[in-house]
Write a structure and sequence with these properties.
The protein has a single domain (2-149), classed as Response regulator (Rossmann fold, 3-Layer(aba) Sandwich), CATH 3.40.50.2300. With 151 residues, it is of the alpha/beta class. Strands 2-1-3-4 form a four-stranded parallel beta sheet, sandwiched between helices. Strand 3 (84-87), helix 4 and strand 4 (108-110) form a beta-alpha-beta unit. It has helices at residues 14-28, 53-61, 78-81, 90-100, 124-127, 130-149, and strands spanning 2-8, 35-41, 84-87, 108-110. The two termini are 15 Å apart.
C-alpha cells in the first residue's frame, strides 16, 4: 500500500487538487486498491472548510469530484502514518519539517520534483490562475504515479 499525503498551506486549493487528481489517476490505472491518498494543511486557517470553489470547479471540468472534503491540519503523527508527504512549495516544505520534527526517513518532497521539472506548484489563491495550478498538479501526480509503479 502506497500512503501519500499531499500538503499545502490551507488544504483548500492545491493539496486537495493533488489528492483528487491522484485518486482519479490511480483509479483509471486500476490501482486504487494499492493507494491511500489524502491531503492536509500546514496552517489552521481553513480547518473544516471544503475545497475552494474555483478549485472545485477546475476539478469538475475534468470530471473529478472532491465532495466531502474538509480541510485538516498536518500533525507530527502524520509523519509516521504516511509513506510520502508531498508539499506544493518551499514554504510548505519548511513548515512540514517544523511540524513533523524534521525528516529523518526522507519522506518529505515537493510535488513538481516528481514531474522532472523542479519548482513550486503555482498558488492560485494569490494568482487566481487555476489552469496553471491544474497543469502543475497533473504533471506532478502523473510523474509520481510513474515513479511509484515502475518495477
Amino acid at each position: 500500500m502506497n500512503r501519500i499525503l499531499f500538503v499545502c498551506h490551507g488544504n483548500i486549493c492545491r493539496s486537495p487538487m493533488a489528492e483528487y487528481v491522484m485518486k482519479d489517476l490511480v483509479k483509471k490505472a486500476g490501482l486504487a486498491a494499492q493507494f491511500h491518498i489524502e491531503s492536509a494543511a500546514t496552517s489552521a486557517e481553513e480547518i473544516g472548510n471544503p475545497v475552494y470553489p474555483p478549485a472545485r470547479r477546475k476539478l469538475a471540468e475534468h470530471g473529478i469530484s472532491c465532495a466531502g472534503h474538509a480541510a485538516r491540519q498536518l500533525t507530527r503523527e502524520d509523519y509516521d502514518r504516511w509513506d510520502l508527504l508531498i508539499g506544493m512549495d518551499g514554504a510548505n516544505l519548511r513548515n512540514m519539517r517544523r511540524i513533523c520534527g524534521g525528516d529523518p526517513a526522507g519522506k518529505l518532497r515537493l510535488l513538481l520534483d516528481c514531474a522532472g521539472r523542479p519548482g513550486e506548484v503555482a498558488d492560485p489563491w494569490y494568482t487566481g490562475d487555476f489552469e496553471t495550478t491544474w497543469r502543475d498538479v497533473l504533471a506532478g501526480c502523473r510523474g509520481l504515479l510513474r515513479e511509484l509503479t515502475v518495477k
